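Technical appendix A lists one of the benchmark inputs used to test multi-chain prediction within the project. The record comprises two sequence entries:
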Amino acid sequence: MNVEAGSYAPEVGKRHPDFTLPRADDRRPVSLSDFRGRKVLLLHFASW
Amino acid sequence: MPVWHAATREWVKSGRLALLGVVQEQHAERARLFAQWQGLDWPILHDPINILRLQGVPILVAVDEHGVVRAVRPDLKTFDADFLDRTFSDGGGEAVALTPRPGDIPALRERTRANPSTGWRALGDALALWAGPEGLDEAIACYQRAVDSAPADGDALFRLGACHRLRSETAGRKHGDFQAAVDGWSRALATNPNQYIWRRRIQQYGPRLDKPYAFYDWVSEAAKAVAARGETPIPLSEPPYGSEIAHPLKELPQPQAPTPPDPEGKVNRDAKRLIEADVAVVPPTVTPGQAVRVHIVLRPSRRAQAHWNNEGEPLRLLVDVPAGWRASERLLAAPQPQQAETGEARRLDFEVQAPPDAAAAPRLRVYALYNVCETQGGQCLFLRQDLPVEIPLRK
């Protein structure tokens, strides 16, 4: 477990740091690593 | 983002690509309504405390099958050739975790003993994300300890503010939670003025003179559009109001002074505090020439089992400012439900602008007049409450 966070700065060619957050709909935890084996488009956005 | 959503539908359908959203938003329900309105049918994760430490949004990142970043802000025109059609080899180095998982809370409690300087913030993060409303008291206490030991920890300050705001919307709210939220966000921003997510959180509740756009004016349009499709819009337990839906302004209006309804102060004061008032000023200080938004929340006291009496005049708020200062409204009235008796929170907000040569903090005279009943079917009274609105001047 490593919970020390640096500023969010994903680097091309480096492994994306894993994260686990609750789903907005049912609060179930989901991790980026749950998608291992699939290509993922990660969309960071806001609803404001 | 809608462009990417539309353009990637076939790739998602065929299994070539997964979309994963992360939304910077305090209220999960608002994010859900936004997704319902826009037809975003992929998983959306909720980051209410900006634990990922984003400086701004939107950001799109293409991550390959090994978890390695292949593009930041990819080009849609070449996305399939550059990313989807390619097979990547692993080699991205060690994976680290940016966030705690739900099961980490006991270990993080232990860690506060070994490393208090970072341990309290980490425990606060875990509680804020995973312990629900019941965990907010402890999350706030953790962040407060983190800030006590590192006063310039902007992340801890922002998250302390976020948890105060979250708690202000729960039954476990404490007096002053909203102002404590604004104070935390403002102190955080002072440590890093370039932090766009933190700045926007203050602007969401702040004055129209400092607002880049209306933050939640889309909500009513979204609800109508969803209903028109025959679906039930995601209900919002905290519908956006006042400053959250207000559009930017370049100059404050100058309303005429109203005829004061109680000029001599003859209406009985609410000595039993049947109505509890909470005041927040956003941002927490005003500089000469600038404006603040004053939020006033009034709630019938649960302790006194009080409730609004809706058979008389609606709740009114009178605002008087010193010479040279401007108030956007001088007389406000709260909407009144149809039912004879209700117990909801009533929120009113207005803006106050300092003159360019302001030399001292203003003495605002603000009072509320309302009809309230002591207990169900009990005595009903027309009362006044003078509200302490302090706006510190920062030169």
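Chain B touches chain A through 75 residues (CB under 8 Å). The mean pLDDT of chain B is 95. Comparable benchmark entries are summarised in Table A2.
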